[in-house]
Design goal:
By secondary structure, the chain is mainly α. The chain has 5 helices and no strands. Belongs to the GtrA family.
Length: 154
């Protein structure tokens, strides 16, 4: 008969699941911000669908940063507010490159998606999510090591 799983491992799994779930909630919030801006400005205001994504990314990334710093990764702060936000935008740029690449491909090749750009926003968001989670968890919001020295940028 196998011994029961230690409670520490269960707590670690539960904490990891909580972080992933909250990151996904933040992603949904970011998607709603992103998709709303794109849909309104492209469909109803006639803006360029490619340039609009640059604005919507900046606003959505700022929204997800606020959510993630408050709820998902709230335990420790490595950087000041502006430094954390700037690093977060830089980190999210990797996911945005994947996101924007797929979005652009879909908008360029499919007239139906050009008319409803929210579909391309959703596809791009899913594609960039993994890159964004990894960079958030292991760079921007990683826990400060008790033995590591603080760099001048921290």
């Amino acid at each position: 008969m196998a011994s029961p799983e230690p409670s520490r491992t269960r707590r670690e799994r539960s904490a990891a699941a909580r972080v992933l779930l909250l990151f996904a909630v933040g992603g949904v919030i970011g998607f709603l911000i992103d998709a709303t801006i794109v849909q309104v400005l492209v469909k109803w205001a006639g803006w360029n669908p490619y340039l609009t994504r640059l604005l919507s990314f900046l606003v959505a990334a700022t929204g997800t940063w606020l959510f993630n710093r408050t709820y998902t990764f709230s335990a420790d702060r490595r950087y000041g507010v502006f430094g954390e936000w700037a690093r977060y935008l830089l980190a999210m740029s990797g996911g945005f490159a994947v996101n924007y690449g797929l979005y652009s491909l879909l908008v360029f090749h499919y007239a139906g998606i050009r008319a409803q750009p929210v579909i391309a926003v959703a596809a791009g968001s899913l594609a960039g999510m993994v890159v964004n989670f990894v960079s958030s968890r292991f760079w921007i919001f990683r826990k400060r090591s008790e033995t590591a020295e603080q760099s001048p940028l921290d």
